[in-house]
Design brief:
Elements lengths: L8 E8 L7 H17 L4 E3 L17 H17 L6 E9 L5 E9 L2 E7 L11 H4 L9 E3 L2 E5 L8 H9 L4 E6 L7 H16 L3 E5 L1 E4 L2 E4 L3 E3 L5 E4 L6 E10 L2 E3 L11 H19 L5 E4 L4 H14 L4 E5 L7 H14 L2 E4 L3 H15 L6 H22 L2 E4 L3 H6 L12 E2 L6 H13 L15 H5 L12 H4 L3 H11 L6 H8 L3 H13 L1 H5 L27
Parallel strand pairs: 1-2, 2-3, 7-8, 8-9, 16-17, 16-19, 17-18, 19-20
Antiparallel strand pairs: 1-14, 3-4, 4-5, 6-7, 9-12, 10-11, 12-13, 14-15
Helix pairs in contact: 1-2, 4-5, 6-7, 6-12, 7-8, 9-10, 15-16, 15-17, 16-17
The chain binds nicotinic acid adenine dinucleotide (DND), adenosine-5'-triphosphate (ATP) and glutamine.
Adenosine-5'-triphosphate binds next to strand 16, helix 7 and strand 17.
Length: 558
């Protein structure tokens, strides 16, 4: 089916795959498999994602000469494959130019050789990106010539500005091809489509956008590749959150290049995207770091219930181990709810009473605490007894501890260092508590595509409707010490994602200024805790960590 493209027709395969950062030989095999599938589907050209041969983002790995040398060897192997008369490949790889620059490059491989290359011109250096640290910017590219077609390749960020597309148009490009390593966040889909449409409107050319689908530390990439016609209308979308090799046939007629419109499904609901991001982020973190599974404290509360559900959907019930660790303050309701969650999810549930640990620490510290009333110290001891227990089980049996704190808690420091903050990874870290409720409801009513967990509900309704409580003292409720979560989350969103000051956040939220001031103070004061928190999936447009880098020590008052 394959062979040279006819002069009027080009079948291109969008290669939405999951490269592993640093696994060059594995990525070579992934690309070979995708190319074989593309050939089977009749494609003449495979469009892979940004830095597909090394995985994206490779960060400081590219500063190593040995890494760059290995990337070159893998390119030579893949280029040699294309001597078979099958599809050519446009593949992303870090590349040293003749002049010695280190570039984020896309290479065209065809007929057994490197047939052309472009270097990324705009290196993103904001938010989670640090590309200027490791790459040199390339010149504005010229179109690559492939079997009689002039292909305008612009790498990810290069689509976000007009100048690269303009240079490609000036060079006679007929189609714009955009390989991406574009991380998911809740505002990203719209931004990508807006930038793509702007480039199409300026150039009149069709545009092919292909993105990787994977989890990489705190980033998750949703795929969501698409093709846009020269009129700015979508011609085809690739389902997000899973790998795919999707062919698209372009025809050239009367000097215009186009592809027939395919049905475009409606975009998924926000809760579905948040859920799928957490599932893929956790699955790839656990799998790529070689853990047999995860272990977590299941309290009967909503955070651990949702974290457990995500873990089961990501890894399968047999790789998720839940532990209920009651104290004298644990209610019968919590014990029942934890048991019901584990039953619905089909996971193992052990019960380990932390009463003996509390008694032992109480006795050890008693002479030293003499004359001091019980306070938050004793509450934190309970949280730490649980953290210690989970860490011991992790050490003995190998599963990674899954941390369960959400973004509302991480914002205000409502979590215990070396206690419930123990863990290797967190799925809720960038999800506000109000979204935790919404996503839990969504999962109880839906079975996500590809999920390994149950078809039906994953937690009893009562877990969603009861008042959140840390149960660290009798009758404790979160809202005794925090504003109601709807108010807290509203203010946090204004202060964090919207970057408002106290006065603006007060005016926009309509909430009392002292409440906003208190949230601001808690937010600033908790930076030291966040620096010690485990990594977690970036979901919002401004996640803690690389995206929002505030000093721990500062005197700015908001
Ligand atoms: N700037 C800074 N740099 C470095 N360290 C700093 C620091 N400021 C305080 N510290 C240190 O941090 C420690 C205090 O932090 P930590 O020991 O964690 O304790 P702390 O933040 O005082 O208390 C834990 C909070 O989390 C809440 N909690 C706990 C457990 C579960 C939940 C839940 O529902 O999810 C909520 C609990 O109700 C309480 O409000 C002290 O040792 C203090 O010296
Ligand atoms: N009794 C318990 N048994 C097991 N784990 C617990 C228990 N209590 C707390 N944890 C662990 O500590 C985390 C912090 O929980 P806590 O109940 O203090 O507040 P939370 O943030 O409301 O969480 P959740 O909604 O899961 O209860 C829980 O998510 C859970 O992983
Ligand atoms: N890899 C990149 O260049 C990513 C930057 C781009 N603006 C995006 O997030 O989609």
């Amino acid at each position: 089916m394959t062979g040279p493209a006819s002069s009027e027709r080009l079948t291109l395969a969008l290669c939405q795959i999951n490269p592993w950062v640093g696994d060059l030989s594995g990525n070579l095999e992934r690309l070979r498999a995708a190319r074989a599938e593309a050939a089977r589907l009749g494609a003449e050209l495979v469009l892979a994602t940004e830095l597909a041969l090394t995985g994206y983002p490779p960060e400081d790995l590219v500063l190593r000469d040995s890494f760059m040398a290995q990337a070159r060897e893998v390119v030579a192997t893949l280029a040699a494959d294309t001597a078979d008369g099958g599809p050519g490949v446009i593949v992303g790889v870090p590349w040293r130019s003749e002049a010695g620059g280190r570039h984020n490059a896309a290479l065209l491989l065809d007929n057994g050789a490197i047939a052309g290359m472009v270097f990324k011109h705009h290196l993103p250096n904001y938010g989670v990106f640090d590309e200027k640290r490791v790459f040199d910017p390339g010149p504005k590219p010229a179109p690559l010539i492939f079997r009689g077609w002039r292909l305008g390749v612009m790498i990810c960020e290069d689509m976000w500005f007009p100048d690269v597309a303009a240079a490609l148009v000036a060079g006679g490009a007929e189609i714009l091809l955009v390989p991406n390593g574009s991380p998911f966040d809740l505002e990203k889909t719209e931004a990508r489509l807006d930038h793509a449409r702007a480039r199409v409107t300026e150039s009149g050319l069709p545009l092919v956008y292909v993105n990787q689908v994977c989890g990489q530390d705190e980033l998750v990439f949703d795929g969501a590749s698409f093709v846009m016609g020269g009129d700015g209308a979508l011609r085809m979308t690739v389902a997000p959150w899973r790998e795919a090799v999707s062919p698209v046939v372009f025809t050239r007629k009367d000097g215009r290049v186009d592809t027939p419109a395919q049905p475009i499904p409606p975009p998924p609901p926000v809760a579905a995207d948040i859920y799928q991001a957490m599932v893929l982020g956790l699955r790839d973190y656990v799998t790529k770091n070689g853990f047999p599974g995860v272990i977590l404290g299941l309290s009967g509360g909503i955070d651990s219930a949702l974290s457990a559900a995500v873990a089961v959907d990501a890894l399968g019930a047999e790789r998720v181990w839940c532990v209920m660790m009651p104290s004298p303050y644990t209610s019968a309701e919590s014990l029942e709810d934890a048991a019901a969650c584990a039953r619905l999810l089909g996971t193992r549930l052990d019960t380990i009473d932390i009463g003996p640990a509390m008694a032992a620490f109480g006795a050890m510290l008693e002479p030293h605490f003499a004359g001091r009333a019980a306070d938050i110290t004793e509450e934190n001891l309970q949280s730490r007894a649980r953290g210690l227990t989970l860490m011991a089980l992790s050490n003995k049996f190998g599963p990674m501890v899954l941390s369960t704190g959400n973004k509302s808690e991480m914002s205000v420091g409502y979590a215990t260092l070396y206690g419930d903050m123990c863990g290797g990874y967190s799925v809720l870290k960038d999800v506000y508590k109000t979204a935790v409720f919404a996503v839990s409801r969504w999962r109880n009513a839906n079975h996500p595509e590809g999920a390994l967990g149950p078809e039906g509900p994953v937690m009893p309704e009562r877990v969603i409707t009861k008042a959140p409580s840390a149960e660290l003292r009798p009758d404790q409720k979160d809202e005794d010490s925090l504003p109601p979560y709807v108010d807290l989350d509203r203010v946090l969103h204004l202060l964090i994602e919207e970057q408002r000051g106290i006065a603006a956040a007060t005016a926009e939220s309509g909430l009392p200024r002292p409440l906003v001031e208190r949230v601001w103070t808690l937010l600033q004061r908790a930076e030291y805790k966040r620096r010690q928190a485990p990594p977690g999936v970036k979901i919002s447009a401004l996640a803690f960590g690389r995206d929002r880098r505030y000093p721990i020590t500062h005197a700015y008052g908001g």
